[in-house]
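Cytochrome c oxidase subunit 1
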Amino acid sequence: MTQVDIAPSQVQGRPVQHLEKNYINHSSGISSWLLTLDHKRIGLMYLVGISVSFFLGGLFALGIRLELFAPGMQFMDAATYNKVFTLHGAVMVFLFIIPGIPAALGNVVLPLMLGAKDVAFPRLNLSSFYLWIAGATFFLYTLFSKQLDTGWTFYTPYSSSYSDTSVISATFGVFLLGFSSIFTGLNFLVTIHKMRPPGMTWHKLPLFLWGMYGTAIMQLLATPVLGITLLLLVMETTLGIGIFDPKKGGDPVLYQHFFWFYSHPAVYIMILPAMAVVSEIIATFSRKHIFGYKMIAYSSVSIALLSFLVWGHHMFVSSESTLATLIFSAITFTIAIPSAIKVFNWLATLYKGSVSLGTPMLYALEFIWLFTIGGLTGLFLGVLSTDVMLHDTYFVVAHFHYVMVGGTLFAFFAGLHYWWPKMTGKMYSETTGRIASVIAFVGFNLAFFPQFIMGSRGMPRRYADYKPDFELYHQLSTVGTLVLGVGIALLTYNLIRSIFSGKKAPANPWGSATIEWECPSPPPHHNFDHPPLATDPYDMERVEWDEEVQGFVPVVGRRAPVAH
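Predicted structure tokens:
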């Protein structure tokens, strides 16, 4: 075992492709962004797009909560409520949560973590972004111009009995978004397999990349099922073929089987990248080697594979057989094991660590709290005896939001703050960031925890009105939503302000040992002047604080040896 110097033109015995010739130009004009093949710029364009989608979906959520502040109809009728409900769910799920961490943060960070100049297929990467733009445009046009009120799941036979073209145009938009997701997943799989630097074996891969790898598997295997399902829905609507509509000899439950066969893996397409982000942050801000590296890594792949076997727990009330119910319930409990492994390993990493509560760490700790509540309440929904009572109530709404919003959203905020200095080269205000995280955390719990109580007491979900018995709980939820909105607004102000007046960021402000922190902040066009060598990504003793640069720098002589 000796340390070796690798020539810039060789990585794992293969020539490094100099990607500069593939780029349209290096100017700063609009065309250089629209035609760029630079993974960093594509990631930033994704970030802008999904941020706009998030704020749009948040406005719809605020409209729903204001309408439900008191019994009776406030400023919407029931039909309008259904349309706004559809807008909120569809925009949040398809345009923000699913592409959020992989497409935006993943595009920026994944090649940097590998010490690569770009992803394996830069042109495919740009194509995936424009497919997302096309799908989002088509989808939003449909939602605003048509009378779509099916809910984000497009359940049949309601959706297949539409007399206009709302469902067709909306599902076509989702179809395009699915192709964008498939292209991104394919690109990440090939990049991780083929573009690792010398010495980066699978057991030296940062856990963020393990999470992206598991996510890519689900994107490639699950998303085509959604595409086929939506095409069948369009065929039934346009050609009158009886596939899902019972009036035509079809079976509406078949649609639910197809939809949830995709959508339960999609739950982990949303949450697995969030877990990957938290693994990086917990290790860095604990100044400690991650506990149980292999178990966390393997649990990511376990989640990806097991996620295909549990779709039936969404359908316990659809007259499934007793045997099917038992099997799906057992597998549901089984998939909780790899998730619990991650949580316990994060807590073990924190134990006796030198923990610093930077803004990314606060969001990561909030994620652990919220995701744990979401996971534990999911156990009630994984058992037939309790799911039958809770299935169509606000208990499910609260559980879903604790996992998807409390999980994915807070991890997205954690990762955004963690890699913001690397992406922009600017530092934000830590004080403002911490205040915003606490406000958002308090607001989120105030918004959604009361929904567990009213759901367990029988408040049905998807209703535009309710009995006065539930008024207090709805008012608490509405106030919590407003508080959460204040926290997010403060977060947004802090990050945007840093672009114009923030201090210049050092290459490694947090003291992480992963490769992306070895290039300048922001990275140059080619990322690295020389292909970096792989090290233990969680050897925190490899970096030390430097007062002169006000950041962490590598310790001379601490680079791990690389095998020939």
